[in-house]
Each structure stands twice: as structure tokens, then as C-alpha cells.
Fold these 3 entries.
Entry 1:
Amino acid sequence: MLVGILAILAVTALHGTIAADPRVTLYALLAVALTAGVHVASGRRTILSVGVGTAVYVVLVNAY
């Protein structure tokens, strides 16, 4: 059940981001992929993976 709720949240957030500014689609998808990679590689540490993904997204959006 928790995975389903998180999936709905992620899809809603990505849809809002992509609809608001299509330029950041690649940045959002890269951040999601990195979040999933860090989550699996770090032994499923949610706070770490979400923090890294968020930081990468913010840096990419503001740098480019």
C-alpha cells in the first residue's frame, strides 16, 4: 500500500513539474533515476535517496 501511495505522489509531482515547464523534463527524470539508484545502492535508506535526488534536481534546475 505504501509503495502505491508513493507512486501516485511521484507521478503527480512529475506531471505538475513537466506541465509547468517542459524544459525540466530531463532534469526530473534524471533526479528520479538517481533517487532510485541511490535507494537501491544504499541499502534502502529513504531519507538519503530522497535527499540526494532532491539536491540534484534543485542544482540542475538552477544551474541550467
Entry 2:
Amino acid sequence: MKTKMMLATAGIGLLLTGCSGGPSTGDVEQALQAATDQMAQEMAQMGMPAEDVSFDVHSRNCAEVDGGRAYDCTIEATLSDGRGNTEEIADEIRMVEGSNGWRVTR
């Protein structure tokens, strides 16, 4: 479980760029899920097992930065591994919107 939670936290650090209005809670959940899924795929390619993780964002507070091209968000969320294990997290992330939607950049 701890390995998977570390994977999820590490997945928050993927980099991409873009611009638009602020992200919704659903946008944040989708971006976190996409980052975590990408990290799990990379680990699987290296022969390292990875479990499925899902996010339930309870709270987000986003502020426009970088002239409106990005948003810094403080989030609180529950991570679930599909086996009944959960972990509460609080983190700060940067979100940007590109042609494929919102992405976590840090």
C-alpha cells in the first residue's frame, strides 16, 4: 500500500503546459488519475507491480498564477487502492490546461 501511495504522490509531478480558466474539482481528480495511471504504466514496463489507485478530491482551492497560464491548487483527497485501503492526503499542485485537458505539472 505504501508503495502505491508513494507512486500516486510521485505521479503528481508530471510536466505539461497550457492555459485557460481555473480547474474544477473533477478536473483535478481526472488530472491526478491520469498522472498516477501513467506512472503505473511506466513501473509495469520496468517489471515493478503497481495497483490501481483512485482519487476522491474533497477540497480544492486554486489561485491563478503565471499571468493566468497556470493555477496553484491546495487539495485534500482520499486515495483508495481498490482493496479497501485508503489514505488521506493534503498537497499543493500546479495545474495547466493543454489541448488534451488539465494536467498536473508539480
Entry 3:
Amino acid sequence: MNDIRDREAATMKFLLEVQVDQGRLVQDPEGELGRILRYWGGNLRHYSLKPGDGSAVYDSDYQEVGRWHIAGPAETDPPAPRPAA
């Protein structure tokens, strides 16, 4: 890889957030999370996986329970230090 692609790859993240206290996840968190991960593991090939790509995540009852997205450099920078109290 060239230097520019190395820097871009180092600043991108795949972020998945799922509300485990909503929908079918309340009844079967392990089963539903496993299903979500298997589904998106196979479906990601349809995305270019560039910053800004993402989609809603649904449980097996088709209720939206989260979202995944590719975070770019601005979202992956370390947080600024908090001032001392």
C-alpha cells in the first residue's frame, strides 16, 4: 500500500451499535446479536466501506435496534483531554 492509503486505513473504523434492551434482543440477546452479525458479515460486500457508509440494523421482527457505519478521520480522532475538576 502507498503511504496515503496506509494513513486513511489507520483512521477508519467500522462501528456497530445495537440496543440490547429493545425488541427481540430483550428475549434472546445472544441469538439476535449472532443473527445480526452473521447477516452483516455476509452483506458488507455490497458496500464500498468508505467513511459515511452505513445502515440501520434490524432485529428478526424487523424493528430497528441500531446502526453500523464507517467512521472517517474526524470521528476516529482520540477525544480531547478533559480539564481537571
